[in-house]
Protein backbone atom coordinates (compact mmCIF):
# COMPACT_ATOMS: atom_id res chain seq x y z
CA UNK A 1 0.00 0.00 0.00
CA UNK A 2 1.43 3.36 -0.94
CA UNK A 3 1.68 6.18 1.59
CA UNK A 4 -1.15 8.25 0.15
CA UNK A 5 -3.54 5.27 0.26
CA UNK A 6 -2.48 4.45 3.80
CA UNK A 7 -3.00 8.05 4.91
CA UNK A 8 -6.40 8.25 3.22
CA UNK A 9 -7.47 5.01 4.86
CA UNK A 10 -6.23 6.16 8.27
CA UNK A 11 -8.00 9.49 7.90
CA UNK A 12 -11.27 7.72 7.10
CA UNK A 13 -10.89 5.38 10.07
CA UNK A 14 -10.06 8.17 12.49
CA UNK A 15 -12.95 10.27 11.27
CA UNK A 16 -15.30 7.32 11.72
CA UNK A 17 -13.98 6.68 15.23
CA UNK A 18 -14.41 10.32 16.14
CA UNK A 19 -18.04 10.17 15.05
CA UNK A 20 -18.67 6.98 17.02
CA UNK A 21 -17.04 8.35 20.15
CA UNK A 22 -19.10 11.53 19.92
CA UNK A 23 -22.22 9.36 19.68
CA UNK A 24 -21.24 7.63 22.94
CA UNK A 25 -20.74 11.04 24.57
CA UNK A 26 -24.15 12.18 23.30
CA UNK A 27 -25.71 9.07 24.82
CA UNK A 28 -24.22 9.94 28.20
CA UNK A 29 -25.87 13.36 27.96
CA UNK A 30 -29.24 11.57 28.11
CA UNK A 31 -28.42 9.87 31.41
CA UNK A 32 -29.81 11.10 34.71
CA UNK A 33 -27.74 13.67 36.61
CA UNK A 34 -26.53 11.00 39.03
CA UNK A 35 -25.53 8.64 36.24
CA UNK A 36 -23.73 11.44 34.39
CA UNK A 37 -21.75 12.23 37.53
CA UNK A 38 -20.61 8.61 37.72
CA UNK A 39 -19.44 8.55 34.09
CA UNK A 40 -17.84 12.02 34.04
CA UNK A 41 -14.27 10.64 34.27
CA UNK A 42 -14.92 8.34 31.33
CA UNK A 43 -16.55 11.01 29.21
CA UNK A 44 -13.63 13.30 29.99
CA UNK A 45 -11.28 10.60 28.71
CA UNK A 46 -13.38 10.22 25.58
CA UNK A 47 -13.23 13.98 24.98
CA UNK A 48 -9.43 13.81 25.31
CA UNK A 49 -9.32 10.98 22.76
CA UNK A 50 -11.42 13.07 20.35
CA UNK A 51 -8.88 15.86 20.82
CA UNK A 52 -6.04 13.48 20.02
CA UNK A 53 -7.86 12.23 16.94
CA UNK A 54 -8.30 15.85 15.81
CA UNK A 55 -4.56 16.41 16.26
CA UNK A 56 -3.71 13.30 14.27
CA UNK A 57 -6.13 14.28 11.50
CA UNK A 58 -4.55 17.72 11.26
CA UNK A 59 -1.12 16.12 11.07
CA UNK A 60 -2.28 13.69 8.40
CA UNK A 61 -3.49 16.56 6.24
CA UNK A 62 -0.17 18.37 6.39
CA UNK A 63 2.57 15.81 6.79
CA UNK A 64 1.70 12.26 5.86
CA UNK A 65 4.99 10.54 5.24
CA UNK A 66 6.34 7.04 4.96
CA UNK A 67 7.84 7.43 8.43
CA UNK A 68 4.45 7.42 10.10
CA UNK A 69 5.44 4.82 12.71
CA UNK A 70 5.61 7.16 15.72
CA UNK A 71 2.17 8.57 14.93
CA UNK A 72 0.80 5.11 14.30
CA UNK A 73 1.97 4.01 17.74
CA UNK A 74 0.19 7.04 19.19
CA UNK A 75 -3.01 6.15 17.37
CA UNK A 76 -2.74 2.50 18.48
CA UNK A 77 -2.21 3.59 22.09
CA UNK A 78 -5.27 5.84 21.91
CA UNK A 79 -7.34 2.97 20.52
CA UNK A 80 -6.29 0.84 23.51
CA UNK A 81 -7.19 3.73 25.81
CA UNK A 82 -10.53 4.01 24.03
CA UNK A 83 -11.24 0.33 24.64
CA UNK A 84 -10.54 0.68 28.37
CA UNK A 85 -12.55 3.89 28.68
CA UNK A 86 -15.59 2.50 26.86
CA UNK A 87 -15.49 -0.65 28.98
CA UNK A 88 -15.40 1.42 32.19
CA UNK A 89 -18.19 3.60 30.92
CA UNK A 90 -20.43 0.61 30.18
CA UNK A 91 -19.61 -0.90 33.57
CA UNK A 92 -20.44 2.35 35.37
CA UNK A 93 -23.90 2.61 33.84
CA UNK A 94 -24.60 -1.10 34.40
CA UNK A 95 -25.33 -1.83 30.82
CA UNK A 96 -24.47 -1.28 27.24
CA UNK A 97 -24.05 2.33 26.26
CA UNK A 98 -21.88 1.43 23.32
CA UNK A 99 -23.39 1.63 19.82
CA UNK A 100 -23.43 -1.68 17.97
CA UNK A 101 -20.62 -0.45 15.73
CA UNK A 102 -18.37 -0.22 18.81
CA UNK A 103 -19.53 -3.33 20.63
CA UNK A 104 -16.28 -5.19 19.98
CA UNK A 105 -14.42 -2.51 21.96
CA UNK A 106 -16.23 -3.20 25.20
CA UNK A 107 -15.85 -6.97 25.15
Structure, described:
The chain has 107 residues and is mainly α. It has one domain (3-106). Helix content is 77%, strand content 0%. It contains three helices and no strands. The radius of gyration is 15 Å and the shape is elongated. The model has no long low-confidence stretch (mean pLDDT 78).
Report the order of strands and helices: HHH
Q: Kindly state the number of beta strands.
A: 0
Radius of gyration: 15 Å
Number of helices: 3
Q: Describe the biggest sheet? A: none
How much strand?
under 5%
The helix fraction, in percent, is over 70%
| N- and C-termini, Cα separation | 31 Å
Structural class, by secondary structure, is mainly alpha
Low-confidence runs (pLDDT<50, min 5 residues)? none
Count of domains:
1
The general outline is elongated
> Overall mean pLDDT score?
78
